[in-house]
Design goal:
The complex is a heterodimer. Chain A is of the alpha+beta class. The longest helix of chain A is centred in the last third of the chain and has 23 residues, at 457-479. By secondary structure, chain B is an alpha/beta fold. Chain B has a 7-stranded mixed sheet. A 6-stranded mixed sheet of chain B has the order 9-10-8-11-12-13, with helices on both faces. Classes of the chains: A alpha+beta, B alpha/beta.
Chain lengths: 632, 462
């Protein structure tokens, strides 16, 4: 007897999306959290988005997830980054009112049908004799049964906090660490890694001398994170920028013996993209200063986050550091920074649909999979929620390809290569960046979200209209031939571009760098009024058609490898020509396709050809006697 | 595995004047074929061919019973052979004529001529060797000269890889700077400006250019030097071609399927492997078909390493001769004044201004007069071509050359993009493409290295 279809452990960004997705797909879901105040918390930077991450939020939104809508309702400042660097990398970033963000997410959870939220501390995962998951057990011994369990426990697994010479078992901000769950995973045979992260001190708003700081205002834009948003709020909150000084650096160098990162107290591996200020100063001694961002945590509240000053030095040293920064001479530390290390699964323990390989029915999402970041966590939660339900229905898992989505790259990287540090999404990890942009996330994914039952009818209608408008306008511009009259030549002269040759289409003209959609209005008489987000996609598709074609060719080139499936039962030790290292790595990862196999570090092109030869010659069929090579 | 494999045969030692040549047969009927055409010294059929034994005997034509050559036969049954097929090797006398006849005899018994590298391909598919080994083996096999073999071996040790790695490092750095500025937009990372980036890209282009040039010239080592015969119609090019190639061409044409549209052939001139190419007569013409022939001739002449400009010595020099001479000014070679057996009408001094410094030589394709001297000069020039390529020649096979060319092309596009207003995320596409092709040579994965580079180069993190 099962109490629920799906149990989600943890109410952070991964847990929320997982629970919502599963419930929206019609499963009965129980979300277990340590407390309502932990729901969708932002224990580090109070901000969402930025390069790579903004694209993920767009994709979550396009698939019918909650994060995009939630931040659009609760940000206190929003900016568009990378505008000069090309269409693929335009990235929104928002400063969240973290309390408002949490409050709205709590309301969404409460309002969701099929979803129940309970406050409880899960300490055990219950396993059937045959090895499948059957539920969870709380610290109090209460048992909940479900055929699918999603662990989204964040940094709580065996968490340990460090400040100066002190260290104690803890989750973020004094919440209890989950020791039992960590032990359970070890007992089940999972290989665990120990990662480290850290956060900055918070100061009080009143104690800041704003006159010495550089202002960082928000932007007014015709869109938000969600495809449902078409404007930005006007009452944005100012953020500020300041810099460390040589004195800051002296203080840190003088007190390194008190830094747990340098005393050897912390064994966990920290993220290189998010180093502590100690690390930055020691690793890059020639830098004269480092940026410090002042980010209010809420619209009206007291607390301001000091981005860039992550540290685990003792509180009194943290004070000296803060005082040494212009504008913060009298700042009052409201909460000190700290380092935390925690257990996570080696992500090669997980399948591309986020189910653990050892325990069928047990899914994991977020920091437990070795990632860092709210957006990375949320996207995994969404995918785990979807796949848990698909599994219960006996359907094929939902896996996104690298050429389809940032989420596809994120999960493929994790389960294929593992990670040696907390994994953060960056646009440079995405090889097909120009085709997976934030402006076309809905074109790539909303159809899928709709068929999964995550995107409501009404939203799908709006999307279909937009897709039709884009397709029609692209076709119209590609086929409308510019007339070679005086009006045209005058306009082109004015724009500073060369005259048209025979049979030049409006689309051809738009491909010229100096021409844009608006500038052709006079000679484009059939033009109808279109929304800005439609024009944006149309313009990018035409203007960068040459590069998009190049990228499509790159995708096509790998397709043969990506679609060549490898049987799950493959015995790599029996394949001639594979190096020993490749045999070991392939056995651990058990890749789905030749493409995935090729991305495993330690597997060389020669190994891939050997693998290909093995698959081609059909010898595997004799060995395994199975023509069906699909998973599940 | 050998069950469904047809049987292939090839001469597996280099064609030339070696003492011993080996004909190798691989496939399911290899042993049966050997039994049909091998006779032991007493003249009996080769039924007693035993695995792993070396047998002395003779090879006969299985249809006519005609004796071809004495030989040693070795039988290597599947799967304990290079290809994991049944394999039989005949060691015969090394002459081209003999080996070709043995080859034909095996084909008559039902084997088919192996495609280039097909033995290695079989070994590879059978899991006997990995890809890089396969490529290196093919290069070693194909090497026609000692220096080519040395180069192929050097390639095994990684000369090409290390050159490519240097270029790759530069390209990766370039990309790291672009990517870091995209991924960390509001951190004041010290990324290079456009001008520095452009310079780096240009450096990569010129390095790749150099590598392509060196790689292309390594073709000379592997494939020998090509000599094109150029001249207007009826000056005796074809006769000279036959004189240079001698009987060997006739032998080759006995093997079916070797007839080609382009009239060219391998030969050794004074021990140097050379490909001699005959061309259609070069002249201005209105006839569209003839014009195609002339264009092909021009193309052949352009690609060849050496040229022999053939002039008819029995008549006066004409404008067409002068045009051809001028066209070939930059190409090393010889001016052969043919038909010196006839009455000489030509004023040799009149050729000098057009010859581009080439030696002018009187020959007669008909009588053979001057041909020896012509061969000596060609051999000397060929050796100069081989040794004069560069101090550090690079052995690159076709696949590697193609990868280098593609990488170069992409870096050219990136350089162009950098110097115009193309946004960096698009420029990155070209650079990624270049890295992809470089990785095809080194077998590395750029994505992992890129992350390393970004993190080691820049102080990143809020």
């Amino acid at each position: 007897m099962c109490d629920y279809d799906v149990i989600v452990v943890g109410g952070g960004h991964a847990g929320c999306e997982a629970a919502l997705a599963a419930a929206r797909m019609g499963a009965s879901v129980l979300l277990l959290t340590l407390g309502w105040e932990s729901i969708a918390d932002m224990p580090c930077n109070p901000s969402l988005g930025g390069p790579g991450k903004a694209q993920i939020i767009r994709e979550i939104d396009a698939l019918g997830g909650e994060m995009g809508r939630n931040i659009d309702h609760s940000y206190l400042q929003i900016r568009l980054l990378n505008t000069g660097k090309g269409p693929a990398v335009h990235s929104l970033r928002a400063q969240a009112d973290k309390e408002a963000y949490q409050a709205r997410m709590r309301e969404v959870l409460k309002a969701q049908d099929n979803l129940k939220v309970e406050v409880s501390h899960v300490e055990n995962v219950l396993i059937k004799r045959e090895g499948q998951v059957k539920g969870v057990e709380t610290r109090e011994g209460e048992r909940y049964r479900a055929p699918a369990v999603i662990l989204a426990t964040g940094t709580y697994l065996g968490g340990r906090v460090y400040i100066g010479n002190e260290s104690y078992s803890s989750g973020p901000y004094g919440k209890p660490a989950s020791i039992g769950l960590s032990e359970v995973l070890k007992r089940l045979g999972f290989r665990l890694a120990r990662f480290k992260t850290g956060t900055s001190p918070r100061i009080t708003r009143d104690s800041i001398n704003v006159s010495k700081l550089k202002k960082q205002p928000g932007h007014i834009l015709p869109f938000g994170f969600s495809f449902e948003t078409h404007s930005t709020r006007e009452d944005q909150v100012m953020c500020y920028l300041t810099y460390t000084t040589p004195r800051t650096h002296d203080i840190i160098k003088a007190n390194l013996s008190l830094a747990p990162l340098y005393t050897g107290a912390i064994i966990g591996r920290g993220p290189r993209y998010c180093p502590s200020i100690e690390t930055k100063i020691m690793e890059f001694p020639n830098r004269e200063r480092h940026q410090v961002f002042l980010e209010p945590e809420t619209r009206t509240g007291e607390i301001v986050y000091l981005g860039g000053l992550s540290t685990s030095l003792p509180l009194e040293i943290q004070r000296e550091i803060v005082y040494s920064v212009p504008g913060l001479e009298d700042a009052e530390i409201a909460r000190p920074g700290y380092a935390i290390d925690y257990d996570c699964l080696m992500p090669t323990e997980i399948s591309p649909w986020l189910e653990t390989k050892r325990v069928p029915g047990l899914f994991t999402a977020g920091q437990i999979n070795g990632t860092s970041g709210y957006e990375e966590a949320a996207s995994q939660g969404l995918m785990a929620g979807i796949n848990a339900v698909l599994k219960l229905r006996g359907q094929e898992p939902f896996v996104l390809e690298r050429s389809q989505a940032y989420i596809g790259v994120l999960i493929d990287d994790l389960v294929t290569k593992g990670t040696e540090e907390p994994y953060r999404m960056m646009t440079s990890r995405v090889e097909y960046r120009l085709t997976v942009r934030q402006d076309n996330a809905d074109l790539r994914l909303t159809e899928k979200g709709f068929s999964l039952g995550l995107v409501p009818e009404e939203r799908y209608e709006i999307f279909s209209k937009r897709r039709r408008q884009i397709e029609d306008e692209l076709a119209r511009l590609r086929t409308t031939i510019v007339s070679k009259d005086a009006a045209t030549s005058n306009l082109l002269k004015e724009i500073g571009t060369s005259p048209v040759q025979s049979r030049t289409s409006l689309g051809d003209l738009l491909a010229r760098p100096e021409v844009n959609y608006q500038s052709l209005a006079i000679i484009d008489k059939d033009r109808t009024e279109l929304p800005e987000d439609v024009i944006l996609v149309v313009e990018i598709e035409l203007k960068y058609a040459g590069y998009i074609r190049k990228q499509m060719r790159q995708i096509e080139r790998t397709r043969r490898l990506e679609t060549r499936r490898i049987p799950t039962q493959t015995d790599y030790s029996q394949i001639h020509g594979l190096s020993r290292e490749a045999q070991e790595k392939l056995s651990v990862v058990n890749p789905r396709s030749l493409g995935q196999a090729a991305r495993i570090s330690g597997v060389s092109p020669a190994d891939i050809v050997a693998l290909m030869a093995y698959l081609e010659t059909g010898s595997h069929r004799r060995k395994h006697n199975s023509g069906d090579i699909n998973e599940i | 595995m050998s069950k469904d494999r047809d049987t292939i045969v090839a001469i597996s030692t280099p064609l030339g004047e070696g003492a011993i040549g080996i004909v190798r047969v691989s496939g399911s009927s290899a042993i049966a074929i050997a039994r049909r055409l091998f006779r032991d010294p007493s003249g009996r059929h080769g039924r007693e061919l035993k695995p792993w034994g070396v047998r002395y005997g003779s090879i006969v034509d299985c249809e006519t019973g005609e004796y071809i050559d004495e030989a040693l036969a070795v039988v290597m049954p599947a799967p304990y052979s290079f290809t994991r097929d049944d394999v039989v090797e005949f060691s015969c006398h090394g002459g081209v004529a003999v080996l070709t006849r043995v080859l034909e005899a095996v084909i008559k018994c039902g084997a088919r001529l192996a495609e280039p590298g097909e033995f290695t391909k079989r070994a590879f598919l059978a899991g006997r060797i990995d890809l890089s080994q396969a490529e290196a083996i093919i290069d070693v096999i194909r090497a026609k000269t000692d220096s080519a073999r040395k180069l192929a071996l050097a390639n095994l040790r990684g000369e090409l890889s290390s050159r490519v790695s240097c270029i790759r490092e530069n390209v990766l750095m370039l990309l790291a700077h672009i990517e870091a500025s995209i991924d960390f937009p509001d951190e004041d990372i010290e990324a290079l400006g456009t001008r520095d980036l452009t310079q780096r890209a240009q450096k990569a282009v010129s390095d790749l250019n150099e590598l392509v040039r060196l790689g292309r010239s390594s073709r000379v080592y592997r494939d020998g030097v090509s000599v094109v015969l150029a001249g207007r119609p009826n000056v005796g090019k074809s006769s000279l071609f036959n004189t240079l190639v001698g009987k060997k061409r006739a032998i080759v044409t006995e093997v079916p399927g070797t007839t080609r549209d382009v009239i060219d052939d391998w030969t050794t001139i004074k021990g140097v492997p050379v490909r001699v190419v005959d061309t259609a007569g070069m002249r201005k013409t209105r006839d569209p078909i003839e014009r195609l022939g002339v264009e092909a001739a021009n193309e052949q002449a352009g690609e060849a390493d050496l040229v022999v400009v053939v002039i008819d010595g029995s008549c006066q020099i004409c404008d067409e001769d002068r045009d051809i001479l001028l066209q070939m000014t930059d190409k090393p070679g010889v001016v052969a004044v043919n038909k010196c057996d006839l009455k000489t009408e030509l004023d040799e001094a009149g050729l000098i201004p057009y010859g581009g410094g080439k030696r002018i030589l009187r020959v007669s394709a008909k009588t053979g007069e001057g041909v020896d001297e012509l061969e000596q000069i060609l051999a000397d020039l060929a050796v100069t071509e081989i040794t004069g390529v560069s101090e550090n020649p690079i052995m690159a096979n076709l696949r590697q050359l193609e990868a280098l060319e593609n990488a170069k092309h992409s870096m050219e596009e990136a350089t162009h993009a950098l110097s115009t207003s193309v946004p960096p995320d698009l420029t990155a596409i070209d650079i990624h493409e270049a890295l992809f092709w470089l990785d095809q040579i080194t077998g590395q994965s750029a994505s992992d290295d890129l992350m390393e580079k970004i993190f080691s180069e820049f102080c990143i993190g809020k």
